[in-house]
Amino acid sequence: MTAAASGSATPPRKRGRPARTSASDGPAARDRILIAARNEFAERGYDKTSIRGIAKAAEVDPALVHHYFGTKERVFEAAIELILAPAMGVPDAVHGSREGAGERMARYMFGIWENPVSRLPLLAVMRSALTNETAAVVLRGMIERRLLLRMAVELDVPNPEFRAQLAAGHLIGIAMLRYVIRMEPIASAETDDIVAMVGPTLQRYLTER
User: Fold this and answer.
1) CA triple 172-200-120, angle to 5 deg
2) What are phi and psi for residue 16, nearest 5 degrees?
3) What span, in angstroms and rounded, lies between the C-alpha atoms of 131 and 31?
4) CA 19 to each of CA 23, 56, 125, 178: distance values in angstroms, whole numbers, following the listed order
5) Nearest of 44, 43, 39 to residue 79 by alpha carbon
6) Which of 37, 38, 130, 148 lies in the 20 to 30 Å Cα band around 46?
7) How far apart are the C-alpha atoms of 33 and 51, rounded to whole Å?
8) Comparing 19-33, 60-74, 126-140, which segment has the lowest mean pLDDT?
9) % of the chain beyond a pLDDT of 70
10) What is the overall mean pLDDT for the chain?
């Protein structure tokens, strides 16, 4: 008697997309892809990171990365949002009393930069933006929409968006010298000393009419 006759034959395999599981699809997979993208961009930069590499790190099919995020640019944008999440509290840091707003902003931002967990991805994003125009456009748009515009709303001064950009540019310039180029003596200066020097300048940007 054949296997078919005995009723023990294996049923034919159905074609189509595999059944959805939490391991291969759904919110868990999307979160895994996003974390993998953040790590890949942080370690390799924009140019050397690929959709296939992100998929491999997340242990999913590359088609799933395209399904959730579309292009590499969109994955980068989502990863930047995750990387910049700690910095999104800057508007809250300047909110409230006008007195000491500049120092609060400086201390908040340097607190993020001094933390190795947040500093390394931020360094990678800045380096990507310096070497790749697509990365620069994405980063610029994210900073404008999610950070500077929110900060400008909190400022009771003329030209608040311009003031917010001046304050952010001041801090980014110092961060470049201290953490990317590592120029002395600013690279080894005490954070409190930098804050003490920078705070009054930021105060003028943020509050002076």
Assistant:
1) 25
2) 120, -175
3) 27
4) 11, 20, 36, 50
5) 39
6) 148
7) 10
8) 19-33
9) 87
10) 84
Distance CA 28, CA 24 (A): 8
CB environment 16-27: b (16+ within 10 A), e (fewer): eeeeeeeeebee
pLDDT at 1: 52
Phi, psi of 146 (to 5 degrees): -95, -20
3-state secondary structure string across the chain:
CCHHHHCCCCCCCCCCCCCCCCCCCHHHHHHHHHHHHHHHHHHHHHHHCCHHHHHHHHCCCHHHHHHHHCCHHHHHHHHHHHHCHHHHHHHHHHCCCCCCHHHHHHHHHHHHHHCHHHHHHHHHHHHHHHHCHHHHHHHHHHHHHHHHHHHHHHCCCCCHHHHHHHHHHHHHHHHHHHHHCCCCCHHHCCHHHHHHHHHHHHHHHHHCC
Distance, in Å, from the CA atom of 38 to the CA atom of 10, rounded to the nearest integer, reads 43
55 phi, psi to nearest 5 deg: -60, -40
Residue whose structure tokens are 């910095």: 87
